[in-house]
Design goal:
By secondary structure, the chain is mainly alpha-helical. The chain is built from 6 helices and no strands. α1 (about 5-15) crosses α3 and α4 packs antiparallel against α5 (about 165-180).
Length: about 220
């Protein structure tokens, strides 16, 4: 995956509000959030495309590795046949080919492992972007509800906040609340939840490590 897409994903997930604040001043926070959601969708599509490419590459490499291993086994049988027939020249050619295969197998195995890591990483990007999209959609919904409520007339029949300055102040306040949900930097009151989530993630990671160790022990 190219660096420009990685940079975009990082920017989307961190959801910097700098450019959005300018739009709030122009009274268009909903339009900005809608555009941000479309950008998330586009990024998800690009990551999924790269994910499909990596999956296809892994499949082809795996097929090649299987083919090389099968050929190596066949050559072992052919070496025995050649030796029994006292055809050292044929046995030598088969052994030479086996050695070439043995040199390639570790490279293919490493390539498959690299592709697995890339696939796992891309899946994490998709999950992060989908989570950010849900947060932005919720933020947009909250914003639209707030705007609808703000447009309702008060008991005197007047719409509150008629002046431009009051409307900007109201939009800024609403936007700040929305971006608390839509950004990767939660408000202070959410720090406890963030700590718990981090602890849960670390616990899950430790469990995966233990599972890997148990698999290695069982494979001995």
């Amino acid at each position: 995956m190219n660096e420009s897409l990685l940079s975009r994903i990082g920017r989307i997930v961190s959801a910097s509000a700098n450019s959005l604040v300018d739009s709030v001043e122009n009274m268009a926070p909903a339009i900005v959030l809608e555009e941000a959601i479309r950008e998330v969708d586009q990024a998800i599509g690009e990551v999924r495309h790269e994910l499909g490419r990596q999956e296809a590459a892994k499949h082809l490499t795996s097929k090649q590795l299987i083919s090389e291993n099968e050929e190596h086994e066949q050559l072992s049988e052919q070496v025995q046949v050649a030796l029994q027939a006292e055809r050292d020249d044929l046995a030598e050619a088969a052994v030479a080919r086996q050695m070439d295969i043995e040199a390639q197998i570790p490279v293919l195995e490493r390539s498959i492992e690299d592709q697995k890591e890339k696939i796992a990483e891309l899946n994490q990007y998709v999950a992060a972007l989908q989570a950010k999209k849900r947060e932005m959609q919720q933020g947009l919904s909250d914003l639209l509800k707030s705007q609808t409520a703000a447009d309702q007339p008060n008991s005197t029949g007047n719409t509150p906040g008629n002046s431009a300055s009051q409307r900007v102040e109201k939009a800024q306040s609403t936007f700040d609340r929305v971006m608390t949900k839509a950004t990767g930097n939660p408000a202070r009151q959410n720090n406890a939840d963030a700590t718990k989530l981090a602890e849960l993630e670390e616990l899950a990671r430790n469990n995966r490590i233990q599972e890997r160790l148990e698999q290695l022990k069982a494979a001995k």
